[in-house]
Amino acid sequence: MSIQKCTVFLIVPFAISGCLSSTESDNIDNNALWASIKIEDRNAGPTAKVTAELNVGGFSGTNVELSDGEKLEVTVNGETSELKHDTDFLDIDYQTHVQVTREVTLFTIDFYRNGEPDILGSNVELPLAFDIVEPEEEQRIFSDTPLSVQWNSALSDSEMKVNVSVSCGTSTGGTVALAKDFMTADDGNYNVNLNTAFLNEIQDLDREQSCDVEVELLRRSEGSLADGYGEGGEIVALRARKVDEITLVINN
């Protein structure tokens, strides 16, 4: 049976309505399933979030809700946990949180089915943890000097995604926020020219005011999705660390 759930979200001064289109998993053969599985450590432990979404029709297709007797499980460090139903804004998925360490950690996700073969052995390794060494929270930086981003536990065979967000005032009393991401070698160091990347793109920039800066680093790995998902999908794991409340002083 296909189900459509509609919700109205009130966000002053607007109301946003959305419908969740879903179908029960016992209606779906394995060869019609698409899966997205994500492991995320965003808060420096002690747990990582495991999220699995099943669809028919790919990334933007119809959500699949598990029928009675079917379940998704994750196994890590010898411990097995069942993923529980969760309904987010315009989305249905299954989630749990598991204990993790700072080491590289193997996650295995299994889908146990009724009337169809179980889909077992989707694997991904959560990468080695790291910390942002520079910049620090509440640090003052200056526009005439490149922003130095440094982290520990560098890896020679990996890449790091550097996300930088800058929010500045304008001479007309408004605020402009820009965000960019940069891919770099995971060697522990990256410099960002904030003038070139951000400030020169802001019209009517009030150079008498300071700007707010946020830096986030993401280390990501891709795993091996079990062959049973006929429409394919993805299984990924990431570690993310963030530093905010950085003050950028503009040198005139």
UniProtKB/TrEMBL annotation:
PROSITE patterns: PROKAR_LIPOPROTEIN. It comes from the Bacteria. This is Lipoprotein. It comes from Shewanella gelidii.
